[in-house]
Design brief:
Length: 168
């Protein structure tokens, strides 16, 4: 079953590589409960097949970086990028994309969260195993308010520009 607008995000955890030690967060990979991170917040989430992949690196992440201030001006508290990679890879990719401090690079290493969303995809024919479909969503207090899932390897409806247009 795929998540829909109006649904609450499923229980699950995501990992994030923390660059600077903070109270309650050690340097390196830290695991967080999604329900705790989304409570009382508006979050723009975009999911993609993998770190360092062509469309993801050249268009998806750069678009959200370019429009981060616009999204915040529309009431978005945080921007998350979720991919089926480990927290070390997501941290390195975030540094490479200059996303640190702007986009939270969230690792779904075993694809458990994207499977719970019903947004997993089989990329075995490309040697990549189970990955995430490309999508974007707006989540308020853990509830999906907008959802845009790409079809057939396209990059049309999940861009930062498309999500911004939905915010009015």
């Amino acid at each position: 079953m795929t998540i829909n607008i109006g649904d609450r995000l499923p229980e699950g955890t995501l990992a994030e590589f923390i660059e600077v030690e903070l109270a309650g967060c050690s340097l390196g990979p830290n695991t967080f409960a999604v329900s705790g991170l989304t409570k009382g917040k508006t979050i723009a989430i975009f999911g993609l097949p993998g770190a360092y992949t062509p469309t993801c690196s050249a268009q998806h992440v750069p678009g959200y970086l370019k429009h981060a201030a616009d999204l915040k001006a529309k009431g978005v508290d945080e921007i998350w990028c979720i991919a089926v990679n480990d927290a070390f890879v997501m941290g390195a990719w975030g540094r490479d994309q200059k996303a640190t401090g702007t986009i939270r690079m969230m690792a779904d290493g075993n694809a458990a969260f994207c499977k719970a969303l019903g947004l997993d995809a089989d990329f075995s024919k490309h040697g990549m195993g189970t990955r995430s479909q490309r999508y974007s969503m707006l989540v308020q207090d853990g509830v999906v308010k907008q959802l845009n899932v790409e079809q057939g390897g396209k990059f049309e409806v999940s861009s930062a520009e498309a999500l911004l247009a939905q915010l009015g």
